C-alpha cells in the first residue's frame, strides 16, 4: 500500500501494511483491496485514497494484469460515485466496459457485475438513457449468469427502480422494487430479521409515497396505507433482528417518518426524524447531506405537529427501550434510566471515540516523546472486536476501553505507569460504563489496557509472532478461531507500524497451509455430508445424522473463508459467531461461494425434521422422510457449488462430485513435501 506525504507524492509503502505488488512483479488484487480498506479505516484523506487507486491502476496495467485492472477500475468508479465526482467517473466506466469486452467476459458473472457498476455510475451522473441500456443489458446477462435468488439480481432491480424514479416513471420503479423484495425474501434464511429485506421495504415505502397524487381519494389512501405497512415492516425487522446499531436504521426511521408525515401523523413523524438524526450525527456527522435533509424534515414535522396539536412520540411504544435509540423530546422519561439519552453505539465505535477524546490527549500530554510510538485500537476476544456486539452482549466485558500496544523497549520504560494512567481515565463515557469485566477478562487475561506487542499476541495464540512459512506444523496447530481473535478488530493508530506488521504475519497464512486445510475440509464435507448423513438417516439414527450435519456445516463454513483467502477476508471466528461472519462475508461484492451461508442455515432448519421427525413426532416418524430427502438434496447442492468454485479457481480439473476424490487435485498445488501437509 502506498503512503502519501501531504503534497500527494508517493513516499513508499506504509510500514506494516500490505503491498499489492508481489516480488515477481505481478499484481495481487486481494492485497490491493486490503490496502484500500486500510486507508478508509485509518481516516486518511480522500486524496490518499485517490492517489492509491490511480497508482494501483497504473501498476496493474504495467504488470499486464487485466483482471487486476478491472478490479481497480470498479473501485475507482465506486470512489468517484461516492464523492459525487460523477464526471470523473465516466471515462473510467467506459474503460471498464472496453476492458471487460477485450477480456472476453461477456456471458460471465464478471460481465454482469461490470455492467451493473457501469449503469449505476451512469445513473449517478444523470446519463439516464445510457444507464437504462446498461441496466437492461445487465438484466439479460444476469438471467444467464445468476441464479434467480441471487441478491445481486435484487440489487439490480433496486438500482433500476431508482432510475425510473429519477425519470418520472414511478409506477415502473415500484414494480422493480417489488421484484427485488421477492428475491431477497425468497433467498433469506430469516426474512423477519434480514437487513436487505428491511432496506427493500423502506425503498418501497418511499417509492409509493413519491407516486403522483391520484384524484381518487380512496386509491390515494390505499397507496398511503401500503407505504405505511412497508415502512413499519422495515422497523419491525430491525428490532426483531437486533439491527438497530446498524447505520441504515436511520434510513428506515426517516422512511417511516416520511410515511407518517404523509398520513398526517406529524408527532410520530417528528419522533422518528429525531431518532434518525441522532444516528446520522453519530455515523455520518452533522456536516453530511443526510443530516441536513433530515433536520429540515424534522423542522417541518415539528411545526406541523404543533399546528395540529399533536404530541411528539417515538415510532412506537418500544422505541428507546432500555435506553437504546431514545432521544430527548420523544416522550421517553429520562429519569427512568440514567442512560436514556446515550446514542446506540457498537463497541468498536465506542472504543475509537474513547481513544480519540480521552486516551490520545492523555498520551500527548503525559508521554509526548512516545506519542509517535504507541499503537492504539481494539483487537482480541469479545464480540465487539468482530463488530457483532448488540444490546444482549453488553452484560459483560463491555464499556469504554481500548488497547495500547508498545514495543518491548517502550513497555519496559513506561508500561507500568502508562497502565496506571490508563486506569485513571474516566470510567464513564458517552453514557456507557464503567466497563463490566468478567472473570475471564481480568489480570493477565485483560482485554483492554496496555500491552507489549509480543505478549499480546502470545496471550491469544501462544506465539509472539506468526510461525515461519517453513513451519507448517505450527500453523496447523493454530485453529481458525484463534487466528480470528488475533487479527480482528480495528487499529486506530500505529505510528511505528510494529503492531500492524506482527498482526499481518498472522493474517498471511501460507498458501501451502491453506491448500492443506482446504483438502481437510473437503474430506470432512464428503464424509459427514455426502456419506455418513445418508447412512445415519437410513439407519434411523437421528442423533448420528444430527452430528453429521453439524460437522458438515462447520467444515463448509471454514472452507468458505479459506477459499476467499484469510489474508483478504479474515478467519472464521468461533462457533457462536460463525453465521454472523458468514452473512457478513456473503454480503460483500465478489465473495466466492456467497450463496452458501443461506444454504447452510436452510440445512440446519431442515435437520430437526429430517433427523427427529419434527416437533411432536418421534425419531423417524411422521414428517421425517420428506425433510430427509430435502436435506440430503440441499447438502448435495452445496457440494456441487463447492465443486464449481474449485474448478473456477483452477484448483481442480476433475468433475468428480464426491469431494473426497478432489483432495489429490487440491494437494497437487502444495509445493512443500512436508508430510504434515498431505493426506495419506
Task: Give the topology, please.
Layout: E1 2-4, E2 10-13, H1 29-41, H2 46-62, H3 66-82, H4 86-102, H5 109-124, H6 128-145, H7 151-166, H8 170-187, H9 195-209, H10 217-240, H11 249-262, H12 266-283, H13 289-308, H14 347-366, E3 375-378, H15 383-386, E4 403-406, H16 408-423, E5 449-452, H17 453-461, H18 472-477, H19 480-487, E6 490-493, H20 498-507, H21 511-539, H22 542-564, H23 566-569, H24 578-586, H25 596-612, H26 624-648, H27 663-667
Parallel strand pairs: 4-5
Antiparallel strand pairs: 1-2, 3-4, 3-6
Give the count of helical stretches: 27
> How much is the average pLDDT?
83
Which shape, going by the Cα principal axes?
Answer: globular
Radius of gyration: 27 Å
Cα separation of the termini: 41 Å
Helix proportion: 55-70%
How many separate structural domains? 4
Stretches with pLDDT under 50, minimum 5 residues:
1-18, 317-342, 614-623
Structural class assignment: mainly alpha
User: What proportion strand?
Assistant: under 5%
Describe this structure in words.
With 680 residues, the chain is mostly helical. The chain has 4 domains: 148-246, Tetratricopeptide repeat domain (Serine Threonine Protein Phosphatase 5, Tetratricopeptide repeat, Alpha Horseshoe), CATH 1.25.40.10; 262-340, no CATH class; 347-507, no CATH class; 511-677. Helix content is 60%, strand content 3%. The protein contains 27 helices and 6 strands. The two termini are 41 Å apart. Mean pLDDT is 83; it is low at 1-18, 317-342 and 614-623.
Amino acid at each position: 500500500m502506498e503512503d502519501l506525504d501531504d503534497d500527494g507524492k508517493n513516499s513508499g509503502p506504509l510500514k506494516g501494511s500490505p503491498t499489492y505488488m508481489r516480488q515477481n512483479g505481478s499484481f495481487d488484487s486481494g492485497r490491493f483491496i486490503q490496502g484500500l480498506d486500510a486507508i478508509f479505516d485509518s481516516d486518511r484523506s480522500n486524496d490518499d485514497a485517490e492517489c492509491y487507486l490511480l497508482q494501483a491502476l497504473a501498476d496493474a496495467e504495467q504488470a499486464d494484469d487485466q483482471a487486476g485492472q478491472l478490479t481497480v477500475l470498479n473501485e475507482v468508479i465506486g470512489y468517484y460515485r461516492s464523492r459525487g465526482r460523477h464526471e470523473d467517473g465516466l471515462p473510467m466506466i467506459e474503460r471498464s466496459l472496453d476492458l471487460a469486452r477485450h477480456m472476453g467476459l461477456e456471458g460471465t458473472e464478471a460481465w454482469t457485475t461490470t455492467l451493473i457498476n457501469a449503469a449505476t455510475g451512469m445513473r449517478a451522473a444523470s446519463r439516464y438513457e445510457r444507464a437504462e441500456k446498461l441496466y437492461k443489458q445487465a438484466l439479460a446477462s444476469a438471467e444467464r449468469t445468476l441464479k434467480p435468488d441471487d441478491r445481486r439480481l435484487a440489487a439490480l432491480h433496486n438500482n433500476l427502480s431508482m432510475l425510473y424514479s429519477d425519470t418520472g416513471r414511478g409506477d415502473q420503479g415500484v414494480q422493480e422494487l417489488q421484484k427485488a423484495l421477492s428475491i431477497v425474501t425468497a433467498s433469506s434464511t430469516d426474512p423477519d430479521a434480514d437487513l436487505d429485506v428491511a432496506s427493500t421495504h423502506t425503498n418501497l415505502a418511499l417509492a409509493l409515497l413519491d407516486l403522483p397524487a391520484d384524484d381518487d381519494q380512496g386509491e390515494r389512501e390505499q397507496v398511503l396505507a401500503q407505504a405505511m405497512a412497508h415502512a413499519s415492516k422495515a422497523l419491525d425487522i430491525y428490532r426483531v433482528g437486533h439491527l438497530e446499531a446498524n447505520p441504515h436504521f436511520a434510513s428506515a426511521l426517516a422512511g417511516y417518518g416520511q410515511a407518517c408525515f404523509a398520513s398526517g401523523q406529524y408527532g410520530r413523524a417528528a419522533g422518528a426524524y429525531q431518532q434518525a438524526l441522532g444516528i446520522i450525527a453519530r455515523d455520518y456527522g452533522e456536516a453530511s447531506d443526510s443530516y441536513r435533509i433530515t433536520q429540515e424534515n424534522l423542522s417541518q414535522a415539528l411545526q406541523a405537529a404543533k399546528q395540529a396539536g399533536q404530541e411528539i412520540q417515538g415510532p412506537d411504544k418500544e422505541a428507546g427501550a432500555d435506553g437504546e435509540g431514545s432521544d430527548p423530546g420523544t416522550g421517553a422519561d429520562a429519569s427512568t434510566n440514567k442512560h436514556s439519552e446515550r446514542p446506540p453505539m457498537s463497541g468498536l465505535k465506542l472504543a475509537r471515540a474513547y481513544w480519540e477524546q480521552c486516551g490520545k490527549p492523555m498520551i500527548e500530554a503525559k508521554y509526548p516523546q512516545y506519542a509517535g510510538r504507541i499503537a492504539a485500537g481494539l483487537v482480541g476476544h469479545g464480540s465487539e472486536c468482530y463488530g457483532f456486539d448488540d444490546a444482549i452482549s453488553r452484560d459483560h466485558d463491555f464499556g469504554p476501553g481500548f488497547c495500547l500496544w508498545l514495543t518491548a523497549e517502550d513497555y519496559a520504560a513506561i508500561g507500568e505507569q502508562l497502565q496506571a494512567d490508563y486506569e485513571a481515565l474516566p470510567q464513564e463515557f458517552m453514557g456507557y460504563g464503567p466497563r463490566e469485566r468478567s472473570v475471564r477478562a481480568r489480570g493477565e487475561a485483560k482485554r483492554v489496557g496496555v500491552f507489549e506487542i509480543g505478549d499480546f499476541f502470545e496471550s491469544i495464540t501462544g506465539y509472539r509472532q506468526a510461525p515461519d512459512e517453513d513451519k507448517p506444523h505450527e500453523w496447523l496447530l493454530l485453529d481458525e478461531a484463534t487466528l480470528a481473535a488475533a487479527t480482528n478488530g480495528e487499529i486506530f493508530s500505529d505510528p511505528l507500524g510494529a503492531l500492524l506488521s506482527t498482526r499481518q504475519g498472522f493474517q498471511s497464512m501460507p498458501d501451502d497451509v491453506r491448500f492443506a486445510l482446504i483438502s481437510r475440509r473437503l474430506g470432512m464435507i464428503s464424509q459427514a455430508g455426502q456419506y455418513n448423513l445418508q447412512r445415519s438417516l437410513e439407519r434411523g439414527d437421528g442423533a448420528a445424522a444430527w452430528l453429521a450435519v453439524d460437522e458438515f456445516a462447520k467444515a463448509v463454513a471454514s472452507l468458505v473463508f479459506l477459499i476467499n483467502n484469510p489474508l483478504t477476508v479474515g478467519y472464521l471466528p468461533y462457533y457462536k459467531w460463525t453465521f454472523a461472519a458468514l452473512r457478513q462475508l456473503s454480503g460483500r461484492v465478489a465473495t466466492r461461494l456467497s450463496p452458501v451461508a443461506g444454504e447452510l442455515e436452510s440445512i440446519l432448519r431442515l435437520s430437526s425434521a429430517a433427523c427427529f421427525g419434527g416437533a411432536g413426532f418421534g425419531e423417524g416418524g411422521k414428517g421425517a422422510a420428506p425433510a430427509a430427502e430435502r436435506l440430503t438434496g440441499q447438502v448435495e447442492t452445496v457440494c456441487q457449488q463447492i465443486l464449481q468454485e474449485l474448478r473456477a479457481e483452477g484448483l481442480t480439473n476433475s468433475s468428480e462430485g464426491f469431494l473426497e476424490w478432489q483432495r489429490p487435485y487440491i494437494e497437487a498445488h502444495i509445493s512443500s513435501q512436508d508430510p504434515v501437509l498431505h493426506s495419506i
